[in-house]
Structure prediction request, 338 residues.
Amino acid sequence: MLDRGQALPIYGERLLKTLNPSYFNKCAVYCAPEAWDLVENDFPFSPEFVGSPDSMEEGPLRAQIESMPEVSTVFGIGGGSACDAAKMAAWMKELSLILMPSIISVDAAFTNAVGVRVDHHVRYVGQILPAKLLIDFHLLKRSPRRLNRAGVGDVLSIFTALHDWKLAADTVAENYNESIAQASQKLLDCLLARPEAILACDDEGLKLISELYVGEVALCEEHGNSRPEEGSEHYFAYCLESITHRSYIHGELIALAILITALYQEQDVTPIKSFLDKAEVRYKPEQIGVTEKEIIQTLVALPEYLSRETQLPYGIYHHERMDAGRAEDLLGKLKSIL
Prediction:
């Protein structure tokens, strides 16, 4: 099922059992170990390869994929890394691709971009669509609720992304599409109205996150880039990851980055914080493994980082250049609301 260059989810339970057996003949599986334990018995044939990516760095990942046995289908079952590694393998080797996220803490399974890391920096090297995108409630509900609740991050980022987009239109005459911006705002409003569904993490809440992913990806495809959903909050997260070289639960890091960035944009963060608290999404630095020192270090590093990452569109950290004094002030504002 394809529309506007994106895959549309198939919803249900035990969805692997509904697939044509030919997908399982000579297949490879990129899968988080915990997820494989849950789905192994649903595979009618033993895969030729089952593993997690050794690294999301492009060089090691390419090498691992090249060493895989000959297969015709690759499954990505797990979080963002498993799905992105499977996308990379399918793109490199022209394989049929099946994606079935075991958690929806990130929208990787919903986009056609093949994302890797190069020297700890995010890079997109190709595009591919899955033959099937399976949203299996039985699998998702067996994962920690914390990980699924984190999926709101890539929708909440609309809050800061739209502010950046309007700023860029007013400051550097970037093309601004009012109808797409309004549609993106409606997705955000839909999420903010439903914290109880995210808290419950039941079929309804999981489908809500999935459908919002579908909506934001469609808007990004229509516009031609990620402006309707991604802005300076992601730049902060990318910069932090490039400094610490550590992995984080993506949606939780983005939630923290949204609050920091929105405060710098001088937006009222009350609706975002209220939603995060009601939905019990973790976002506080100590909850997600980020120190105050690392926040300051990241903020101070952003000007130099953005001077190198010239593909990132204009945003608040371009507009109001950060320095040590502003970073300390911004941290103080963050601490005052936590």
About this structure: The chain has a mean pLDDT of 93. The longest strand covers residues 121-127.
